[in-house]
């Protein structure tokens, strides 16, 4: 066994023994802990527990853990082990979308600082990011909210508030800013 693999094994056992009796593990628990070890190896490689590489079985396993958690059926010991190693319980897709949204918002703040407004031209790009398209999309999502399309809308109240805080104009066609939350 390589030193790195042994270290992962020791780390997994150190955490697991806080919540499980390692001498009386079922076959299911042993298999589950082997996935935790794989997750820790992925974390060591990538810096977090978000499985983004090509290990589809591990990616599916992490997705399954989130589904079991959402249903309220994950055993407490497993929940505590995963939480302790830094597992993200939120859906990875939503988590990644939030990271991208935050990145675009920071770019918009820089744009406003430089230009004095948030009215980004549609085709405007910075750092290979389509900031203009993102701004148009925020306005589109806001318009959908005003028309009653709340279900599945990614423009949360928190995001609206952040945009409002920098003087974002929701409606450009009339030349007026509508900085209220939907």
Rg (CA only): 22 Å
Describe the largest sheet. none
Q: Quick check: average pLDDT?
A: 87
Q: How many DSSP H or I helices?
A: 7
| SSE string, helices as H and strands as E | HHHHHHH
What helical percentage do the residues reach? 55-70%
Number of domains: 2
Overall spatial form: elongated
Low-pLDDT windows of residues = 174-182
Percent of residues in β-strands: under 5%
Total count of strands: 0
CA-to-CA gap between the ends?
A: 58 Å
Describe what is shown at a glance.
The chain has 182 residues and is an all-alpha fold.
Tell me the layout of helices and strands:
Elements: H1 3-19, H2 27-46, H3 56-70, H4 76-84, H5 92-115, H6 131-146, H7 157-165
Helix pairs in contact: 1-2, 1-4
In words, what does this structure look like?
There is one protein chain. The chain is mainly alpha-helical and 182 residues long. The chain has two domains: 3-84, no CATH class; 92-165, no CATH class. The chain is 60% helix and 0% strand. The protein has helices at residues 3-19, 27-46, 56-70, 76-84, 92-115, 131-146, 157-165. The protein starts with a helix and ends in a 17-residue tail after the last helix. The relative contact order is 0.08. The model is unreliable at 174-182 (pLDDT under 50).
């Amino acid at each position: 066994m390589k030193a790195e693999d042994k270290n992962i094994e020791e780390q997994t056992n150190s955490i697991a023994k806080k919540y499980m009796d390692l001498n009386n593990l079922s076959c299911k628990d042993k298999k589950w802990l082997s996935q935790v070890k794989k997750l820790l190896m992925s974390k060591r490689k990538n810096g977090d527990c978000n499985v983004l590489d090509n290990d589809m079985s591990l990616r599916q396993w992490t997705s399954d853990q989130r589904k079991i958690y959402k249903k309220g059926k994950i055993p407490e010991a497993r929940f505590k082990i995963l939480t302790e190693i830094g597992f993200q319980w939120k859906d990875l897709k939503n988590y990644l979308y939030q990271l991208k949204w935050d990145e675009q918002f920071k770019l918009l703040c820089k744009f406003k600082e430089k230009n004095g407004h948030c009215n980004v031209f549609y085709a405007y790009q910075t750092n290979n990011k389509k900031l203009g398209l993102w701004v148009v999309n925020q306005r589109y999502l806001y318009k959908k909210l005003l028309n009653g399309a709340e279900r599945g809308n990614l423009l949360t109240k928190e995001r609206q508030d952040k945009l409002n805080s920098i003087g974002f104009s929701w409606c450009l066609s009339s030349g007026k800013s509508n900085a209220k939350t939907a």
